[in-house]
Amino acid sequence: KEGKKPTTFKEDAKTLLDSRCHITLLTPALILILIFTIIPRILMILIAFTNMNLNTMISGQRLVSWTGFSNFVTLFSSSSSDQIASEVGKNFGGVLGWTFIWAIIATVTCYFGGIFLALLLNRKDVKLKKMWRTIFILTIAIPQFITFLILRNMLTNSGPINSLLQTLHLVKE
Q1: What is the pTM of this model?
Q2: ∠ CA 33-36-42 to the nearest 5 degrees?
């Protein structure tokens, strides 16, 4: 319509590797996030509104029937005949409250604590700035290094993971 010729496959591929490289690099990550994070969460939310359980799966009855909010009413009603649902309903509010309190306090202290330390370190009268910065970085680096060492030892030829795989005859020595 605009009087331009359509682009060829080679031209499209060239733009995806040049000017639109960010799209090319982000696409696999977005697909993996969709597959392993977003879709399972949507499925779990949908399952919460069904009566899907092990008994209906084993007996061969209808696998899924929509129950709406009745699962939540049963869970949070104090007169529930199900012992587990009754216990969960009693404890849910307290646990949820403490989870929010913990999340807020942890976020606020980390955020403002980090800003406070950064401002403190950038003052002119602070001595040994490089040493303090090194100490702060070591608190991040040491746990990662220890994790690396543990995984390296677990994945060696005589490590526990490869020994288990050899015992199960999934890999050869």
Answers
A1: 0.48
A2: 95
